[in-house]
């Protein structure tokens, strides 16, 4: 699927341009309830946002065919991950340590770990340094991931033959919201985990205070780019703690913990980070959702 020429990216482009590039739309059914959702908004680029009337899961419908989106968004725009993206900065190290500590506590130790959508490979390196046997998949494997020396598979999870390999943990870090069908992804990874294996999923939290405020502003017409916080060009599914837990449970997992961690930002004063933590992490209102589950 090599694009002969690279057109201008669609991120931030006006609706007319987006609709010229992505002409088709097809309906999507709720993967949990298998019913048609109800549309509640159309964003500033013309993408339709819908909600399942039974379970509340939000997703794009009707949406451009997945293959077309993949071609436009991933092959042409995500392709050039620089070396910097694979760099293990102190902020990333702190974030990864927090995730790995929790996975280890649930697993009762270390073992093999599959990073689905391993990107530039920073997490693979952090996990290996802690004593995990790290492995990864990605649609297109980056140079950074290859340089880690971890076992890697290119392609979509559903289509990869792991040759009977089983893992003690799996990680979907900001991956699930981009997939064609998140339930299919979770069900596939359930088959790949050993009994007692740990699933870790991180997604944007649409129930966070910030996203809720932006949704109200969009509804009332107070935002210039309405619903931009849904990032519909590349995010197809929009989760809350309740809807993500439902999907994970349907795939055969038991949810053990969820939290809304504040990203560690270099350059932000420590007192401000502490204040945000107190205000948003305590009541679990921040805009990132991290969920941990176990395969029984
Ligand atoms: Zn539903």
Give me the secondary-structure category. alpha/beta
CATH architectural group of the largest domain: 3-Layer(aba) Sandwich
Distinct small molecules: zinc ion
What's the name of the CATH homologous superfamily of the largest domain? Vaccinia Virus protein VP39
CATH fold title of the largest domain = Rossmann fold
Number of strands: 11
Can you list the strand order of the major beta sheet?
6-5-4-7-8-11-10
Radius of gyration: 19 Å
Shape: globular
SSE string, helix = H, strand = E?
Answer: HEEEHHEHEHEEHEHEHEHE
Classified by CATH, the class of the largest domain is: Alpha Beta
Query: How many separate helices?
Result: 9
**Rounded mean pLDDT score:** 92
Our estimate of the beta-strand percent is 15-25%
Q: Uncertain spans, ≥5 residues at pLDDT below 50?
A: 79-83
Query: What count of domains describes the coordinates?
Result: 2
Largest sheet: 7 strands, mixed
Rounded to the nearest angstrom, the distance between the terminal CA atoms is: 39 Å
Question: If you had to describe this structure to a student in words, what would you say it looks like?
Answer:
This protein is α/β, with parallel strands linked by helices. The chain folds into two domains: 15-77 and 208-230, no CATH class; 88-205 and 240-294, Rossmann fold. The protein is built from nine helices and eleven strands. It has a seven-stranded mixed beta sheet with strand order 6-5-4-7-8-11-10, with helices on both faces. Strands 1-2-3-9 form a four-stranded antiparallel beta sheet, with no helix packed on it. A hairpin with a 5-residue loop joins strand 1 (38-42) and strand 2. The radius of gyration is 19 Å and the shape is globular. The N and C termini lie far apart (39 Å). Residues 79-83 have low confidence and may be disordered. The structure holds zinc ion. Zinc ion is lined by residues 30, 32-33, 52, 54-55, 57.
